């Protein structure tokens, strides 16, 4: 690779993870994790239960810090700044990085109030501006047509799949650059899953997406890059097509062909 190409690749990374380690007490949950997460791409994190996928994705927005007794080493750079540097302004991550969880978790409020919650915290008060944010976010999350006539009804009245798209819309309302998704379809039926998968594909035009998934077909269908984690280590990180069609490590091959996990 030429110097110019190396620079181009570097520039393309929204996150650069370098020798990142994390311990829960004595439990070494992430070991020397090193790879770049590219901008405007979908990066899938796969691996068997307990391999550190959730710990890793929660490190990307510093949510992992809420767990008492953790220890970390190495760095995670976001837009070229180490997010664990004591001088780092964590507010940047809070506004830049949205998160969607395994189980849809709307607030017990109306659909409208769910979306405007974040923007209001960021000081937006003008009703027309908030109305526009609601419409734009719901359209981007492919939910607008289904809910435009019931915006002031409680979000709990939506189906599970609709609630998850509402949570995606809520994360879009703060105009993030990155969306982290921790098994966003594992609680959903196949049709809702398909809708979220299509949505993820369309969102990458405007956002960088990291998705943890147990479902290897899903990773193969929707991601550009895949990282295979095992016992806290990244065993292989590559273009998704390459990793699934021609893995370079026997353990990756064993996992993707269903020999364990
Ligand atoms: N809050 C915590 N306190 C202590 N140990 C934890 C905590 N969260 C996770 N761990 C441990 O860290 C390791 C990695 O867990 P993690 O949840 O990141 O894995 P995972 O790959 O997301 O698993 P799953 O697919 O089952 O959700 C496991 O050994 C787990 O027991």
From TrEMBL:
The keyword Cell wall biogenesis/degradation does not apply. Keywords: ATP-binding, Nucleotide-binding, Transport. The lineage of its organism: Bacteria, Bacillati, Bacillota, Bacilli, Bacillales. This is Phosphate transport system ATP-binding protein. Transmembrane segments: none annotated. Residues 9-256 form the ABC transporter domain. PANTHER family: ABC TRANSPORTER I FAMILY MEMBER 17. One of its GO terms (molecular function) is ATP binding.
